UniProtKB/TrEMBL annotation:
Belongs to the cation transport ATPase (P-type) (TC 3.A.3) family. Type IIIA subfamily. The keyword Transmembrane helix applies. InterPro entries: ATPase_P-typ_cation-transptr_C, ATPase_P-typ_cation-transptr_N, ATPase_P-typ_cyto_dom_N, ATPase_P-typ_P_site, ATPase_P-typ_TM_dom_sf, ATPase_P-typ_transduc_dom_A_sf, ATPase_P-type_domA, HAD-like_sf. It comes from the Archaea. The chain crosses the membrane at residues 32-55, 61-80, 211-229, 241-263, 683-707, 748-767, 779-796, 808-833, 845-869. It comes from Methanotorris formicicus Mc-S-70. Pfam families: Cation_ATPase (PF13246), Cation_ATPase_C (PF00689), Cation_ATPase_N (PF00690), E1-E2_ATPase (PF00122). The keyword Flavoprotein does not apply. It is a multi-pass membrane protein. This is ATPase, P-type (Transporting), HAD superfamily, subfamily IC.
Length: 879
């Protein structure tokens, strides 16, 4: 099968367009702009501008209109940026498809598939276009997305398969008949647009914003009533009330939240963790257990065959990586492989029973397909057995596919009239299928004793962290579907190394500090898993067993920390729950069992992150709090069921993502507290002024408040939102799920600080003789408050650590914010035109010193409060 030529593809792309669905609900810039008018502050300001016109304050009117304009534009820019960040995230996870073009298998972006393309599809793939099946092995397709039917449909040759549906079993080749909007899915595309719900955190923050707005409203009403008693002119009172409203509404909150989340996700994507669901960002910070696959996640998935057991001998194989260069040794002596007939037969078997392709590109050898199979092809070529040549000699006529459940794979070949069957798979599974064993030139009955001996050799290999496969074959004259894998002849064992990734040890260390448990869940052998687990520090020395248990059977599991799939089958759910917190390795498990493990952990109150790659991992991924799919070796089905995709399949990326998740949440906590504290400061200050001195002596004028809240609020909040993750963040235990931002501890911090700042500012106000020079007193309050804002941007870089510990200059954006705030403040205070609008007078050195000392006092106060709270160490959430 040759497939289309490149030229033809180009023509067809022009004619039919890209294979993509038109998005109906694209967010346009107009929509984003209009969304800005749902901001309550915009309407408050609008009301203020109307009032200004009424009372003849035309200058005020223009200032307010300018501020209004500024807020809308700023909001627009930020949201646009957030939207773009999200869009580019979506682009990173563009799906790919395998097609045959010009006689070769190629992996291309799904959107480049054209009618007439030959698709190569296998278990776990999402079908990229409507197509007609032309070659098929046990194909089952899940068409629920189109028909609602949840049972997989069996597809035969000449049946149609449809874009968007998924292959849950078998494989096929299919000819594309329709792409893009011409597909069945395209025709109903509008109906299945995904909508992302707001996450609990977003909901909580929106609610918080509303509560604060309500408090502001109540304050306004109270002041209004107060004013009526004092017989203050109604318009003046309205202005004050509006100024208060501006002060109290934390308008920066939702925007800073959106931006922090979207840019945070972007940052994580750059580090290879793609968040598919926004909710995952906040859940990540609460993860208490990571259940990780071994092969490819904890290990490198770069397999090299190092040992082969055949004919009662162990052959050592040299060479590294996928380069087909190496030699065979027995007991240190080089052997001539051609004299070792059974070794050659074994190597032929593993090269033929194989779907990987070895390729040389620019002088570098690599494989397309499963690395386990790649390693087998490579070891074959070391004996000069090339797959292409062998396949010509023994054409393949059938295959029983590999699945994680079966743990083996078989291919059927023909040579003349002779039918040959080659199988490879987990040794214990292969052994069960073998009735004979090949020794020298003879085929002997395979005794149980011999099987036990071979299992021992397998165990020895596995204990040295080798991944071992058993190999078998048979010659047959007639085959039925039932007897293909029966009565096989055992050939030997192949042991390959798959070293742990270098970074994994460190990542596990970080997890230990961060009170996150790591569990290895693997389809591989128990001994191999244990050996790898020991290498990376999964097993604690002198481990203290948490669970107290009398049952002897269960005790053994607790001591070992290991449970195998078959043992797991024998445990009831209750039994599993009773030991689940002490098990470190689950070996030889099938994907379905992952779901039980997730459920047991969840029942114990854990927040579980679980990795997976296959079709049958999907239920566990969906059920886990964070389902993590592999970007490289994962199937489309697993990716769609996941909350996060690891672009590099690497375990350490999960830990890094958790660190980022914790940091993002902490940042949100920081800027929320920051914004609330400053807003309340202004409310308390105005309240104090009105109650103690009356309306005439407001400590700040509405326009002045407006200035502080529009120009000095957003930038520090965003800078705090983007504060880089600190290593120390992994030294804390995971955050409790559902814990709100305003915990008792945070509320205490925020409100005590607001009270302190307002009191200091008020004291500065009354000590600067407002009755004689109200303008000067207000200027001093203004300068003090801005100074406090600046000190607070640093204070809030941590809600519990001292700033001296976390550093003053680490966040460049924060420094920029401070510079901008300082300059704009000096401008309004000293440029005569602005000075007049805002009713400021210049301050002398002594006055400046008073203001700066007042501002600095917040810094001292916050350090003291943090110290006090660090010693107290209580952080119970507000229910
Ligand atoms: P993990 O679950 O950590 O990714 P794994 O790759 O060993 O580990 P599976 O892919 O479920 O898990 O494989 C289970 C077992 O099946 C392997 O341990 C191996 O013995 C066998 N096996 C793996 N790949 C193949 C293959 N291509 N052909 C035949 N047998 C295989």
């Amino acid at each position: 099968m040759m497939g289309l030529s490149n030229l033809e593809v180009e023509k067809r792309l022009k004619k039919y367009g890209y294979n993509e669905l038109k998005e109906k609900k694209k967010v346009t810039w107009i929509k984003i702009l209009l969304r800005q008018f749902s901001n309550i502050l915009v309407w408050i300001l609008f009301a203020a501008s109307v009032i200004s016109v009424f009372i003849g304050e035309i200058l005020n009117f223009w200032v307010i209109i300018f501020v209004l304009f500024f807020i809308v534009i700023l909001g627009f820019i930020q949201e646009y940026k957030a939207e773009k960040a999200m869009e580019s995230l979506k682009k990173i996870v563009q799906p790919t498809a395998k097609v045959i073009r010009e006689g070769k298998i190629r992996k291309i972006p799904s959107k480049e598939v054209v009618p007439g393309d030959l698709l190569v599809l296998e278990m776990g793939d999402k079908i990229p276009a409507d197509a007609k099946v032309i070659e098929v092995i046990n194909l089952k397709v899940d068409e629920a997305i189109l028909t609602g039917e949840s049972k997989p449909i069996v597809k035969k040759k000449d049946d149609l398969i449809f874009a968007g549906t998924q292959i849950v079993h078998g494989k096929c080749k299919a000819l594309v008949i329709a792409t893009g909007m011409q597909t069945k899915l395209g025709k109903i595309a509008g109906m299945i647009q995904e909508v992302e719900e707001k996450t609990p955190l977003q909901k909580k923050i929106t609610k918080l914003g509303k509560i604060l707005a309500l408090i502001a409203l109540i304050a306004c009403v109270v002041i209004f009533i107060f004013g009526v008693f004092e017989e203050v002119p109604i318009v003046e009172m309205l202005m004050v009330a509006l100024a208060l409203a501006v002060a109290a509404v934390p308008e920066g909150l939702p925007l800073a939240l959106t931006l922090t989340l979207s840019l945070g996700m972007h940052r994580m994507a750059k580090q290879n963790a793609i968040i598919r669901k926004l909710l995952a960002v906040e859940t990540l910070g609460s993860v208490t257990v990571i259940c990780a696959d071994k092969t490819g996640t904890i290990t490198k998935n770069e397999m090299t065959v190092e040992k082969i057991f055949v004919d009662d001998k162990i052959f050592d194989v040299t060479g590294v990586g996928y380069e087909p260069k190496g030699e065979f040794f027995v007991d240190g002596r080089k052997v001539d492989v051609y004299k070792e007939k059974n070794l050659i037969l074994l190597l032929k078997s593993v090269v033929l029973c194989n779907n990987a392709v070895l390729e040389e590109k620019e002088g570098k050898w690599g494989i397309i397909g499963d690395p386990t199979e790649g390693a087998l092809i490579v070891v074959g070529t070391k004996a000069n057995l090339w797959k292409e040549d062998l396949e010509k000699e023994y054409p393949r006529v059938g295959e029983v596919i590999f699945t994680s459940e079966r743990k083996m794979m078989t291919t059927i070949h023909k040579k003349g009239e002779e039918i040959l069957v080659f199988s490879k798979g987990a040794p214990e599974i292969i052994l069960k299928k073998c009735k004979f064993i090949k020794k020298k030139d003879k085929i002997e009955e395979f005794s149980e004793d011999e099987k036990v001996k071979i299992l021992e050799i397998n165990k020895d290999f596995a204990r040295s962290a080798f991944r071992v496969l058993g190999v078998a074959y048979k010659k047959a004259s007639e085959l039925t579907p039932e007897n293909i894998e029966e009565d096989l002849v055992f050939l030997g064992l192949v042991a390959m190394i798959d070293p742990p990734r270098e970074e994994v040890g460190k990542a596990i260390e970080a997890c230990k500090k961060g009170k996150i448990r790591v569990i290895m869940v693997t389809g591989d052998n128990e001994e191999t898993a244990k050996a790898i687990g020991k290498k990376i520090g999964l097993f604690e020395e002198n481990k203290k067993i948490k669970t107290k248990i009398k049952n002897e059977k269960l005790k053994k599991f607790l001591e070992d920390g290991v449970v195998t799939g078959s043992e797991l089958n024998k445990l009831s759910n209750d039994e599993l729950e009773s030991i689940v917190e002490d098990i470190v390795v689950y070996a030889r498990v099938v994907p379905e069992q992952k779901l039980r493990i997730v459920n047991a952990l969840k029942k114990k109150g854990h927040i579980v992150a679980m990795t997976g790659d296959g079709v049958n991992d999907a239920p566990a991924l969906k059920n886990a709090d964070i389902g993590i799919a592999m970007g490289v070796k994962g199937t489309d089905v697993a990716r769609e069921a996941s909350d996060m995709i690891l672009q590099d399949d690497n375990f350490s990326t999960i830990v890094e993502a958790i660190k980022n998740g914790r940091a993002i949440y902490e940042n949100i906590e920081k800027f929320t507290c920051y914004l609330i504290s400053r807003n309340f400061t202004e409310v308390i200050l105005i309240g104090l002024g009105i109650i103690l001195l009356g309306f005439e002596f407001l400590p700040l004028l509405p326009l002045q408040i407006l200035f502080i809240n529009t120009f000095d609020e957003e930038m520090p909040a965003i800078a705090l939102g983007l504060d880089p993750a600190r290593e120390e963040i992994m030294n804390k235990p995971p955050r409790k799920v559902g814990q709100g931002i305003l915990t008792k501890r945070n509320s205490f911090l925020v409100f005590s600080l607001a009270l302190f700042m307002a009191t200091v500012a008020f004291l500065i106000f009354i000590t600067s003789n407002p009755t004689i020079g109200i303008e000067k007193a207000r200027t001093m309050v203004f300068a003090t408050i801005v100074g406090m804002v600046i000190f607070n941007t640093f204070n809030f870089r941590s809600l519990d650590e001292s700033i001296f510990k976390i550093g003053i200059f680490a966040n460049k954006l924060l420094i920029l914010a401070v510079v901008v705030i300082s300059l704009t403040t000096l401008c309004v205070m000293y440029i005569p035109f602005l000075q007049r609008i805002f009713e400021f007078t210049p301050l002398n050195l002594k006055e400046w010193i008073i203001c700066l000392v007042g501002a600095f006092s917040t810094f001292v106060f916050m350090e003291v409060i943090k110290l006090f709270m660090r010693n107290k160490k209580t952080n119970p959430p507000i229910p």
